[in-house]
TrEMBL record:
<feature type="transmembrane region" description="Helical">
    <location>
        <begin position="251"/>
        <end position="271"/>
    </location>
</feature>
<feature type="transmembrane region" description="Helical">
    <location>
        <begin position="223"/>
        <end position="245"/>
    </location>
</feature>
<keyword id="KW-0472">Membrane</keyword>
<dbReference type="InterPro" id="IPR038770">
    <property type="entry name" value="Na+/solute_symporter_sf"/>
</dbReference>
<feature type="transmembrane region" description="Helical">
    <location>
        <begin position="6"/>
        <end position="27"/>
    </location>
</feature>
<keyword id="KW-1133">Transmembrane helix</keyword>
<keyword id="KW-1003">Cell membrane</keyword>
<feature type="transmembrane region" description="Helical">
    <location>
        <begin position="39"/>
        <end position="57"/>
    </location>
</feature>
<feature type="transmembrane region" description="Helical">
    <location>
        <begin position="129"/>
        <end position="150"/>
    </location>
</feature>
<feature type="transmembrane region" description="Helical">
    <location>
        <begin position="105"/>
        <end position="123"/>
    </location>
</feature>
<keyword id="KW-0813">Transport</keyword>
<dbReference type="InterPro" id="IPR004776">
    <property type="entry name" value="Mem_transp_PIN-like"/>
</dbReference>
<comment type="similarity">
    <text>Belongs to the auxin efflux carrier (TC 2.A.69) family.</text>
</comment>
<protein>
    <submittedName>
        <fullName>AEC family transporter</fullName>
    </submittedName>
</protein>
<dbReference type="Pfam" id="PF03547">
    <property type="entry name" value="Mem_trans"/>
</dbReference>
<feature type="transmembrane region" description="Helical">
    <location>
        <begin position="162"/>
        <end position="182"/>
    </location>
</feature>
<keyword id="KW-0812">Transmembrane</keyword>
Amino acid sequence: MIGPIVLALIPIVLLIGLGHAMKRRAFLADSFWMQAERLSYFVLLPALFVHGLATANLDGIPIWGLVAALIGSTVFAAAILLMFGRFVTTDGPAYTSVFQGGIRFNNYVGITAAVGLIGTHAVPLAAVANAAVVPTVNVLCVIVFAHYGTAKPTLRGVLRGIALNPLVVGCIIGIALQVTHIGLPPGIEGCVKALGQASLPLGLLCVGAALDWKTLGRGLKPTIFASGVKFILMPLATALICFWLDLDREAVIVAVLFQALPTASSSYVMARQLGGDAELMAGIVAFQTVVAIVAVPAALLLLNARL
């Protein structure tokens, strides 16, 4: 499995590197990257989920087992962070960054890697994974921000943010089209498919553009703790739950892959908006993005030895 893993990850690394090089060389205006990330998050990635779920053959996909494994491992990691995270931070805002760094993941990297490893039928598995983890992670993070951050979001604001999350909305629309057998009309189907396909390369370019070497290693102790939870505890707990539930090989690979991913750059935006330690969050994102080049293949190789 070493060959497929390397071949699946090389395009990801190259696209992230290209995005970083273009940002560093000012090939495009700085304002472009913010707008490109917004386009990817609010339009392109939801379109990928809508198309993947609406047109997928879900027969044989262990939906509820996959959901249980992902939510279970996320809650487990959150519990570890709640019990021990405060020992590596100096204040509440810094703790929120450690918490985000331990449980959030990068959607773009996950979907691209899953498709590279399994093929296009990994998209519905990835969509199910996002539908399970995105609401769970956002609820947990906002609760932590409400207690430890300097901004205090209301319950109404929390629920509204989850309900309007474009990734959640995209998954709900795709599932509704699948369950009702309405599907996507031929002309619209092609448009939605094209938008979804554009999400992966553009999203990875944005990941590279957001990579800031200046923040790498800042707050080393909390950064290493959050990364240990992210790259070791999360995938290990996920694999154990998957084996206990006797999920099939492809579902296990997607589940472990998603839980071994580095923290998304959107964590930095959330830290700024909800009163977290944005500087520490930027350092965690940069550190994990680099470490993931080794950590993700290692997790998949260890998993392959067990499968």
